Amino acid sequence: MQSYIKLKDCSLDFPIYEGSDLSFRNKISGFGRVSINKESSSKKRLVRGLNDLNLDITKGDKIAIIGPNGSGKTTLLKLLAGIYTPTSGEIEINGKINSMIDLGFGFIDDATGYENIMLSRVIRGESIQNKKAIMKAAEEFSGLGEYLDLPMRTYSSGMKSRLALSSALYSVPDILLIDEFFSTGDLEFSKKSRSRIKEIMDNSSIMMFASHDLSLIRELCTKAIYMKNGNISYYGNVDEARLRYKKDYS
Amino acid sequence: MNIFKNNVAILDLIYSIKNYYSWSYLAYFDLKLKYRKTYLGPWWVVVGMAISAGVLCLLWSTIFNLDWKNFLLYLFSGFIIWTWLISIINDGPEVFYGSASLIKAYTVPPVFHVLRKSYLNLLLFIHHLPLIFILVFIMQPNIAPRVFLTLPLAIFLIFINSVLYSSTIGIISSRFRDVEPTIKALMAPMLLLTPVLWKPEMLGEYINYIYLNPFTYFIGIVRNDLIGTDFDPYIWCGAFFITFLQLVFFMLIYSSKRNRIVFWV
Q: Does B157 or A192 have the greater pLDDT score?
């Protein structure tokens, strides 16, 4: 069956909770109390993250997501990954997803590099039966060598990024969701990871890539989504999306 | 039944049961990491438990003027089961916000994190079982054969309750942050109110009050056959009834609030 992503009028609201909202005692003690300012008491504190999104993405689409900080790029990726559920609208996805969002989240400082790679794979529901092969691949790709035997708390931030990428870049999914992380590591590793990601991208049916690097998206993507305040401001040609983004923020 | 068809709680449970390898591996790793670099590893827990229960037994049998030989197995088994139950109760509220970074980055059902924590607590309890078995072998050699059926069933029932309770209370305490300290404060005197350090018959005419305490049932289903008490169907009925209530709360709260957890942690 062919991979696809369909969004129909999808919106996502983030509830905002402050001090007293988090108290069960306040919730109970406020139950049944008549408020003088009815309007404010009944109004929920919500921030709209995504607003009425409509998308129809099919096999072969390599889509860049561009836009300023806070425009909803990562939120859209998390919605597609199934981390968020839309507040309203419908979402239909067909295909195995590999999301590279917040890489390295859930890593354990006291565990070694090897162990963290295994843990990351296990959390993603992947098999680790062939441990030797996984370890060898991680060793070759990350270039961390004997450091992989040491606890992660001894790593520098660059080494942690190498480890995070090594744990994610192992298989080709139907749908690949990537949040920007290309500036990771030194020049040599950055080049290596770029080429590996490109290889995975080329072999995935659908790729969605959130980035601020406008020249890179031109190189990698066939279409682009320009996001602004949680809305899709433009969806189509990569150059046109870049132009509109530059025009709005230059 | 329509209520179970396409219910998100049931679907999440099925997904997690199918992927049992993932959460059991993670729980095992948590255990391994906890005792890394210690000489006896997880067996420190067993040594600690043996010392605590031994001291309590000596102290209590002296205070209450009891035959310590009679009391030892009762207190040891009760105290070990209690330690498991209290870990479940205290870990439950933080099960989701303790896994916040994973919930925000990976697409796994929330109950997956509950199973990981519940399985870790089960593994720790299993470490203590040899202590009970040794004492049973020494002090209760004519053990009823039904224990080979009731003991695994009782442990399984507590594990199920652990998953149901932690899922429900984990959601509530992610939303309301004062739930966790409240539970911990309420649990502090609970050991004294549960038949662990004392025997029910010591209560005399007030003996029936022990059945108001839900811990009585879960300690009873594991301990009674081990210490050679007559089979008590009421204890089992009570444990099954609490499990049913927990299942109802789980279905209601998990199904309706599951998608909100990511915003609350």
A: B157
Task: Mutation target for B interface from A47, A105, A149: give the one with most B CBs within 10 A.
Answer: A105
Q: Kindly state the tokens that stand for A118.
A: 């295994």
| C-alpha B16 chain-centroid distance | 20
pLDDT at A39: 47
Mean predicted confidence (pLDDT) in A56-64? 91
> Across chain A, what does the average pLDDT equal?
84
ipTM of the complex: 0.82
**C-alpha angle B232-B235-B236 in degrees, rounded to nearest 5:** 95
B199 touches chain A (CB under 8 A): no
Q: How many residues does chain B have?
A: 265
From the list B258, B41, B229, the residue with the least C-alpha distance to B147 is B229
pLDDT > 60? residue A214: yes
Residue of A nearest to B180 (CA): A24
**What value, to the nearest 5°, has the Cα angle with vertex A53 and ends A68 and A48?**
65
The residue to which tokens 């539970």 are assigned: B183
pLDDT confidence of residue A37: 53
- How far apart CA A102 and CA A118 sit, in angstroms, is 17
Residue A174 has what DSSP assignment?
S
In degrees and rounded to multiples of 5, residue A63 shows phi and psi of -110, 130
Which chain B residues are within 8 Å of A78, Cβ to Cβ?
104
Q: Between A and B, how many CB-CB pairs are < 8 A?
A: 70
* Mean pLDDT value across residues B10-20: 92
In chain B, % of residues over pLDDT 70? 98
pLDDT digits (tens, 9 = 90+) for B102-155: 898 888 899 999 999 999 999 999 988 888 888 888 887 778 888 899 999 999
The DSSP secondary-structure symbol of A109 reads T
**Gap between the Cα atoms of B185 and B52, Å rounded:** 22
HSE, side-chain direction, 13 A CA sphere, residue A250: 6
- Taking CB atoms and an 8 Å limit, are A83 and B25 in contact across chains? no
Fill in the DSSP letter of residue A165.
Answer: H
Residue ranges of E strands in A135-211: 175-179, 206-210
Strand order in the sheet with A88-94: A46-58, A4-15, A88-94
* Contacting residues of B for A103, CB less than 8 Å apart: 105
Are the beta carbons of A217 and A211 closer than 8 angstroms? Answer: yes
Contact A196, A215 (CB under 8 A): no
The model's pTM is 0.87
Share of chain A above pLDDT 90, in %: 34
Across B254-264, average pLDDT: 92
Measured CA to CA in angstroms, residue B101 lies from A165, A171, A231 at distances of: 17, 23, 26
Measure the CA–CA gap between A176 and A247, rounded to whole angstroms. Answer: 29
Positive/negative CA dihedral, B190, B194, B198, B202: positive
